[in-house]
């Protein structure tokens, strides 16, 4: 297998499980040393590092709540101290506590904003500053969502954050292009992760949602690993400000 990220250092937020973990393992499989951020799941983070190391790469887990701006500088510093540089940054950390719109608790709304959007802003900023200081460019990938393009009845607090991530990558692509830093987003469809396990606990609902996907199934975290590795690699050296739908065709299936 061609190792597309040979010699690179990759940072991934929210990587103790789900899409973040799949991205971290995928990067290691392609030759990268990987630092992961996690909030609470120590066992999951340790297991992810062991899997990275089993692939012959260096791994590092750094705990921190992304809603705190200081977590961003601490994470980037720890990774740089350990591996010497930051080549690729993947902003994945996010939450989606499903709730109706009319009685949305203020704290639920604000917490979702702080984690998904504010956290992403300061994480991307910290990684970009390190890349600029290094002087050899880099790649930033944000895990947005199909929810950046469509609505969700119980996601009125969540969908604006994912639209914001999509927009952030477009704007940072302009701001950072002169430094050789590419900024892109992936927009997953419905992926089976902890974030939606309660919402999809009803098998009938899962089957109904899968039937709407042209490829005939809901997504798995590993379905995002390839697209993220591609955008991180030199294969995408002239791709910036772009977004890549990874949804099995769900978005285009309107009839």
Whole-number average pLDDT? Answer: 95
Please tally the β strands and state the result: 7
Q: What is the CATH class name?
A: Alpha Beta
Shape: globular
In the CATH scheme, what's the topology name?
Answer: Rossmann fold
Folded structure, characterized:
- This protein has 255 residues and is α/β, with parallel strands linked by helices.
- It has one domain: NAD(P)-binding Rossmann-like Domain (Rossmann fold).
- Helices cover 41% and strands 15% of the residues.
- The chain has seven helices and seven strands.
- The chain has helices at 18-29, 42-54, 69-83, 106-134, 159-176, 203-211, 225-232, and strands at residues 9-12, 33-38, 59-63, 88-91, 138-143, 181-188, 243-246.
- The chain has a seven-stranded parallel sheet, sandwiched between helices.
- Strand 2 (33-38), helix 2 (42-54) and strand 3 form a beta-alpha-beta unit.
- Helix 1 (18-29) packs parallel to helix 2 (42-54) and helix 3 packs parallel to helix 4.
- The N and C termini lie far apart (39 Å).
Present the secondary structure layout.
Layout: E1 9-12, H1 18-29, E2 33-38, H2 42-54, E3 59-63, H3 69-83, E4 88-91, H4 106-134, E5 138-143, H5 159-176, E6 181-188, H6 203-211, H7 225-232, E7 243-246
Parallel strand pairs: 1-2, 1-4, 2-3, 4-5, 5-6, 6-7
Helix pairs in contact: 1-2, 1-7, 3-4, 4-5
Top keywords for this entry?
oxidoreductase, SDR_fam, EC 1.1.1.378, Rossmann fold, 41% helix, alpha/beta
Brief account:
With 255 residues, the chain is of the alpha/beta class. It has seven helices and seven strands, in the order E-H-E-H-E-H-E-H-E-H-E-H-H-E. The chain is globular, with a radius of gyration of 17 Å.
